[in-house]
Write a structure and sequence with these properties.
Layout (H helix, E strand, L loop, with lengths): L1 E5 L9 H5 L5 E4 L2 E4 L10 H5 L5 E5 L1
Antiparallel strand pairs: 1-4, 2-3
Length: 61
């Protein structure tokens, strides 16, 4: 099981993580990425790779 988190201070709302996530974990809310379906995270870390702001972490729990 994985726990994706977005640092709202760093997130610029580019939507790259929303577009690349294969399990639709993220949605843009108020111009920030939010892991609304965190339970669906498979830990592939694609979101981390595309986030130029380094705003995303994925922790194994």
């Amino acid at each position: 099981m994985f726990k994706p988190e977005v640092d709202a201070e760093k997130c610029i709302g580019c939507g790259e993580c929303v577009d690349i996530c294969p399990t639709e974990v993220y949605e843009l809310i108020d111009e920030k990425s939010v892991p609304v379906n965190a339970d669906e995270c498979i830990g592939c870390e694609s979101c981390i790779e595309v986030c130029e702001q380094e705003a995303i972490t994925v922790e194994e729990i």
